[in-house]
Amino acid sequence: MGRPEIKKVERQSASTSKGDYRVNRQDSKRFTRSLTAKMDEIALRNATESPLLRLPSEIRNRIYGYALGGQEVNPRTVGGVRTKWRLECRPYGSEARSYQAWDRLLSLTYVCRLLHRETRLLAFSLNTFQIQTVEFNDWLLLLNDDQKNAITTVIFGLRNPFLDLPYQDQIPPMLEQCAGLKTAIHVFLRDPSRIRDSTAQKFAKMKCLDFIVETKAKAELEADAEALDKIMTAAYYEDLEEYEQEMAEAEEEESTEEESTEEEDESEEDESA
């Protein structure tokens, strides 16, 4: 009995042949060229027919400012995950439920290519970003260089001094990533004198940057004048009424001391006479 004959079956490759690949690649190039031509045609039509884009650039910029600016943007992590963020446009520390979502604020930039080109960075330059110190660097990692450089104003909040204060020396190096930054506001919920002198000196050396300790109640911070000559200082107290009461009592004590001093001087003059 002979061995059974084994038939060789050619294995059909699931992959496309080189010829098919070249055809598909050519089709892809044709589609890309066609799509680009259509987009260029739409962009040209928008530039010549759009009521907004036909306006002078000065007027358009004012409209963009009203539409995209004037917000206080609060970046927050989602569920404590550092790579997931939501940006809410509302005052920092506010628990109000009404706010405008960041994506909705940017909706104008997605209308067409020309609007995107003109407005893509305005939301960063025309708004104030309010964020906790410990989260600032993680948030910066998500931005590209153009977005970082467009930021002009940042507010740091110290909700938990024991958590945030150890990071204050890291703020100046982080801010150096934002080349267009003009103002950094450091909000203290308690005693502003806890700021380190080394941190203040680093802020004072940074160009085009005013370091402000935001204030509801005005109290000057004792510091070296040379190191802090450009620093505006004040204190943000949790209980403003208590602070104002303390200030009023201090002023009353000073006036009482001045009156007693004047009375003593007058009595001494009478005795000498």
Describe this protein with a few key phrases.
273 residues, 2 domains, seven-stranded mixed β-sheet, 11 helices, 7 strands, 14% strand
List the topology elements:
Blueprint: H1 18-49, H2 57-68, E1 72-78, E2 81-89, E3 100-101, H3 102-105, H4 113-119, H5 122-125, E4 128-132, H6 133-140, H7 145-150, E5 153-158, H8 161-164, H9 171-175, E6 183-188, H10 197-205, E7 210-213, H11 240-272
Parallel strand pairs: 1-4, 4-5, 5-6, 6-7
Antiparallel strand pairs: 1-2, 2-3
Written overview of the protein:
By secondary structure, the chain is an alpha/beta fold. It folds into 2 domains: 185 residues, no CATH class; 28 residues. It is 45% helix and 14% strand. The protein contains 11 helices and 7 strands. The longest helix is centred in the C-terminal third of the chain and has 33 residues. The chain starts with 17 loop residues before the first helix and ends with a helix. About 10% of the residues have low confidence.
